[in-house]
Amino acid sequence: MANPGLPVPAHPLLRALILLGAPGAGKGTQAKEVARIYDVPHLSTGDMFREHVARGTELGSRAKPIMESGKLVPDEIVLGMVEERVARKDCAAGFVLDGFPRTLPQAERLEEILGRLPLRRALAVNLLVDEEAIVRRIASRRTCKSCGAIYSAGAKMPRVEAVCDACGGPIVQRPDDREDVVRQRLATYNEQTRPVVEFYRRRSQLLELDGSKDIAAVQHELLALLARLHQQ
User: Fold this and answer.
1) Radius of gyration (Cα) for the chain, nearest Å?
2) pLDDT of res. 185
3) Which stretches in the chain have pLDDT values below 50?
4) CB atoms within 10 A of CB 26
5) CB 27 within 8 A of CB 219
6) What is the pLDDT of residue 1?
7) Coil, helix or strand for 28?
8) For residue 43, which of 16, 72, 7 has the smallest C-alpha distance?
């Protein structure tokens, strides 16, 4: 069930919802919760990679050595996995894409794939957060080495310093959460993914929300937005 005070969907999603935003903007958190509330799949390419590798599919066999070498998996393989996944029966009422597409060619090819599905036009929602706020948000983040629980300043901090509330494991800063790495990730985002935002803007498929608000407020606005769109 949805959290108290949140709009409860009176309708199915019936579309692909694409969550966009810079690293640390909160798109993963919102994607998971919207998918849960609408009872539709939450799709991420990372999960798709792991599933295909575990199943030993042709796509998984091609992706595995590339992933193990630390290189980027080619679009041909990524899009093949996406096309296979969204064609499954559990996506018939819609789904939420998290962290994909990342580049303009991916966005263009994704639109071709989605155009063959009996769903409403895809909607991209861009979460806007000031870059310096993102740097502060991610650089303050700490993760439990044992269970993966996440803590950050201004949100949730452990009751005992450096000790996880959930399992008692040690809390550390992940290497990719260091400030210098965060700034590099933002630079990559600006170069590769901002054109995706403009792609959906030109197609009148883009809406933007203030992602700097607290999680519940952003979630409330997103669900209200989806409810209004369904009535149009």
Assistant:
1) 18
2) 86
3) 1-2
4) 22
5) no
6) 40
7) helix
8) 16
Orientation angle between helical segments 194-202 and 104-114, nearest 10 degrees: 40
> Which two tokens mark 32?
């998971």
Q: Which residue, among 115, 133, 172, has the nearest Cα to 149 in the 3D structure?
A: 172
Active-site residue list: 27, 102, 141, 174, 185
What integer pLDDT is reported at residue 19 of this predicted model? 96
Whether residue 12 has a cis bond before it, omega within 30° of 0 = no
pLDDT at 177: 87
**What is the reported pLDDT for 154?**
65
β-bridge partners, 143:
150, 172
Percent helix / strand / coil, the chain, rounded to 5: 50, 15, 35
Per-residue model confidence (pLDDT) at position 167: 95
Q: What is the pLDDT of residue 2?
A: 43
Structural domain boundaries of the chain? Answer: 15-40+93-231
Q: Are 118 and 133 in contact (CB under 8 A)?
A: no
- Residue 16: the pLDDT is 97
CATH architecture of 15-40+93-231: 3-Layer(aba) Sandwich (3.40)
d(CA 98, CA 20): 7
Rounded to an integer, what distance in angstroms lies between the CA atom of residue 214 and that of residue 80?
A: 36
